[in-house]
Recover the amino acids of this structure.
């Protein structure tokens, strides 16, 4: 059985015996140079679109958002603490709105 | 111009030397990547990328291997990158079938190698199709040795592996090809 299978491969490999080298496009070098020049001119404009830059920018924006959010929360908390101390001061000296 | 002079000129950025190099190696590089990728457009793309990398990194070339081996190594890496990308896209298509349906059709077609004689085209096409189903390294070793006609020594240098490893890859490739061809003909009988 194994022999049969091997002959199957050999039979198919025979079809490649007289395989000829394929010629690359006649204008291969011209196309290559054009691509190299195009890549070179685009390289300066492409750098902000590279994945590493996109990920870094997204990360920076995320950190900035978290920082702003926590900073805002802190401010509200201290503000509300300030308000309550003023109210208690007013109440203790009977200076609240209800006393007038 | 001998090889060392050529390398020196390339490192200086001599355009005439680069043109000579491209014209000298373009067919060999193109055939190598074509046999691996089995698609003419992708093969031209990979061949171009190979020479771009040669141009950009020739200053780092340490001459530990011959220039030809170094170029082949780059070409093979470029072809493997494209092959892996294609396989990834195919896997994604299986998960998300509505995504790029036309590309999938392309994968199902049989590759007709332009250098194969007319009377051999059918069998060669079936063999290429079976080879495309092999794991990357097996396909690479088998293609370079059996299709490209390279020696085991050359392939060892290009793939940077021992002779035993390459022999093992070729033998496993043959075993897998046996199964693939058997399946193909069994399906035809049904």
């Amino acid at each position: 059985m194994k022999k049969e299978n091997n002959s199957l491969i050999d039979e198919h490999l025979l079809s490649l015996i007289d395989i000829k080298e394929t010629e690359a496009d006649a204008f291969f070098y011209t196309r290559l140079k054009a691509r190299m020049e195009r890549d070179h001119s685009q390289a300066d404009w492409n750098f902000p679109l590279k994945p590493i830059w996109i990920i870094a920018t997204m990360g920076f924006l995320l950190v900035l958002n978290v920082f702003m959010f926590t900073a805002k929360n802190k401010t509200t908390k201290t503000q509300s603490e300030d308000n309550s101390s003023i109210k208690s001061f007013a109440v203790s000296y009977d200076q609240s709105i209800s006393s007038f | 111009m001998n090889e060392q002079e050529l390398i020196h000129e390339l490192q200086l950025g001599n355009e005439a030397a680069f043109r000579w190099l491209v014209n000298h190696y373009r067919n060999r590089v193109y055939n190598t990547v074509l046999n691996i990728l089995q698609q003419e457009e992708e093969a031209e793309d990979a061949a171009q990328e190979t020479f771009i990398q040669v141009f950009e990194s020739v200053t780092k070339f340490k001459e530990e291997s011959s220039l030809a081996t170094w170029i082949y190594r780059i070409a093979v890496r470029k072809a493997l990158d494209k092959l892996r990308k294609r396989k990834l896209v195919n896997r994604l298509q299986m998960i998300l079938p509505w995504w790029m349906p036309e590309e999938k059709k392309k994968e199902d077609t049989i590759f007709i190698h332009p250098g194969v004689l007319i009377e051999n085209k059918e069998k060669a096409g079936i063999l290429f199709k079976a080879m495309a189903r092999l794991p990357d390294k097996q396909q690479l070793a088998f293609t370079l040795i059996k299709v490209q006609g390279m020696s085991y020594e050359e392939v060892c240098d290009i793939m940077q592996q021992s002779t035993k490893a390459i022999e093992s890859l070729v033998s496993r490739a043959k075993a897998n090809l046996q199964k693939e061809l058997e399946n193909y003909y069994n399906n035809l009988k049904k």
Observations:
- Chain B touches chain A through 36 residues (CB under 8 Å).
- Residues 67-95 of chain B form the longest helix (29 residues).
- Chain B has a mean pLDDT of 90.
